[in-house]
Amino acid sequence: MTALRAGWKRNGIPWLIVGPFAIVLAFPFYWMVVTTFKTNADQYRLDQTPFWPHKWTTENITNLFENTPYLTWVGNTVLIGLVVVVITLVLALPAGYALARLSGKWGQTMGVGIFLVYLVPPTLLFLPLSRVISDLGLTDSIASLMLVYPSFTVPFSTWLLMGFFKTIPPELEDAALVDGASRLKTLTKIVFPISLPGILTVVIFSFSLVVNEFIYAITFISTSHHRTISAGVPTDLIRGDLVFWGSIMAATLIPAIPLALLYNLFLDKFIAGFTGGAFR
Amino acid sequence: MEARAVAGRVPRARGRYLLESRRFLAGALIAPAVLFIVLLVGIPLGLAVYLAFTDATSGSLSGSWVGFQNFVDEWHNEIFRRSLWNTALFTVASQTIVLLGAGILAHALVRDFRGKWFLRFLILLPWAAPIALGTIAFQWILDPTFSILNYTLVHTHLLGPFCDITNIQNCSATSPPNWVGDPTLAKLSIIAVHSWRILPFATVIFIAGIASIPREVDDAAAVDGATGLKKFWYVSLPLQLPIAIVALLFGIVFTATDMAVAYVLTHGGPFNSTQMVPTWAFTTGIESGRLGAGAAISLYMLPVLGLVAVGMLIAAKRAEVA
Q1: Do B129 and A267 make contact, defined as CB atoms within 8 angstroms?
Q2: Whose CA is closest to A191, among A97, A60, A78, A86?
Q3: Which of residues 256-295 of B touch A (CB under 8 A)?
């Protein structure tokens, strides 16, 4: 009896508190799923319970892939994401390491400085950058986004990586240095392999920042076939009087689900990097 | 004898080697990132300031110097003033909701219980989904005719009381309101979407803050007889404060500078009633092609961001001390 009550207190009360929040926060996703699998006619029927599909269909998904440039947008987004992640790692890995280890007091100030750059929002930069992009002749090309996106992924990733590197004991590197390895060799053979989980976290969060980006994507790109998912779905899929909500909801779910799973997998690492070494 | 001599020599040699390579290596490793940031953030920021003092348009390559004209014009523009007010309103309202919600959620989620990973997954969903796409889901949930929210309100008989309390026009127990078509409801909707989006992020940071409090502090508090609210107010809260401030400052920046939610959900409408500084800068600078005026509009956000940055530094300092 007491065990049962203890179990209820332990498991039941958190569910009572968190449950309502979870329902409110997750409902839009439930509704996306339902809308995705409803027939188009059923979306607009008010005489039957709308909370689940009465007739399941995949026509919305096939319509999305066959009659819209959605696959091109997915391809653009993935391609931009990969290029940006590579640029980000090339710049942020060495910088994050140097700030964590090599540069003392001066480096600490610099680390906070780089972090503050992350707070300079695209809303402040999109107008001058649109001018720069047109001067470079990159208007309406996905190359423009590959060039500009590292401006927020690099500060953010440098900051996170600095946090990760601080959690690795310096003794490990000292041992390698004593054994005659060079600093650079220590870096590539010891530090980076141990930091792999941290680096993977940075890859995932940089990639998701790219998928999320909206304002540059709609400012620099004007041709439908050059758009990313985030810009293409709201601008080119929703237009006119004929809106296929089922297809639109499928278009939003497809990137959201894998991203959500990855976020969950790497969340603890993210927190560790974000708060652990970063402010200490 | 020989061994001791060697042992004495090696550390000194290594120390000199480190001292020499360190400075150079540090500079060489940081320089590319700094250079990139200066090129893509520093220079555009300077260019934004320059543009704000000219009458540049997207058609002509360079405008002529107009001094503070853009800033003065916008300050007297009613839509800009409303944008400024809305930005403040949306930010303060959503961050209040987020702080309260995240506080409650984090305290429940920091303990271990059955099915925690599942609830955590559900709670994190809004933050993981691209915001422009998440906002589209709300567009459908708040659809003028087929809103699932209105359907629920009507069928649970909550719509009548809701309309009475909020005093919305064209809203009664049988005629549901148009969420994105009514100025008041459109504002509420934007605040709701922003809160929905930031709450998971703030919760995650709060959990980290609570988890970082050492066990001994709990024990010490128990020995001193601090319990419940007293313990929360005098022990737990001050210790979590630096990290909570970080979450809040991030929330402020994400909300105040985000364009996607207002742009996708209401496009600043109806009649510019939900225009924010970012959407108004976009409308002016890109859609109307008045680059100079648009740059001036977004520069009005700089003082606020400066304050946030200072707050961030203070929070970082406090975290260092704690």
Answers
A1: no
A2: A97
A3: 257-260, 263-264, 277-278, 281-282, 285-286, 291, 294-295
Which of A25, A99, A261, A268 is the best mutation test for B, with the most CBs of B within 10 A? A25
Domains and CATH numbers, chain A: 69-277 (1.10.3720.10)
Q: String of b and e for B1-39 (b: at least 16 CB within 10 Å)?
A: eeeeeeeeeeeeeeeeeeeebbeebbeebbeebbebbee
CA dist B248 and B199 (Å) reads 10
Residue B154 touches partner A, C-beta closer than 8 Å = no
By C-alpha distance, the chain A residue nearest B121 is A264
3-state secondary structure B186-242: HHHHHHHHHHHHHHHHHHHHHHHHHHCCCHHHHHHHHHCCCCHHHHHHHHHHHHHHH
Q: In 10 A of CB B124, how many CB atoms?
A: 22
The structure tokens 């915001």 sit at B131
Inspect the interface and report whether the beta carbons of B47 and A131 lie closer than 8 Å.
yes
Which tens digits make up the pLDDT trace of A44-72? 887 778 888 888 888 889 988 988 899 99
The SS3 of residue B322 is: coil
Phi, psi values for residue A238, rounded to 5°: -100, 100
Adjacent-strand bridge partners of B65: B54
Structure tokens at A86: 């590579």
Alpha carbon of B53: minimum distance to chain A alpha carbons (Å): 13
Q: Which residue of B has its CA nearest to A260?
A: B128
pTM of this prediction exceeds 0.80? yes
Please give the Cα distance from A111 to B272 (Å, whole number).
40
Of A51, A125, A280, the CB nearest to B44: A125
Instruction: State how far the Cα of A246 lies from the Cα of A39, in Å rounded to an integer.
Output: 8
Which residues, other chains included, contact B72 with Cβ-Cβ below 8 Å and sequence gap of 6+? none
- B247-293 residue pLDDT tens: 888 889 889 989 999 999 998 878 899 999 999 999 998 888 898 99
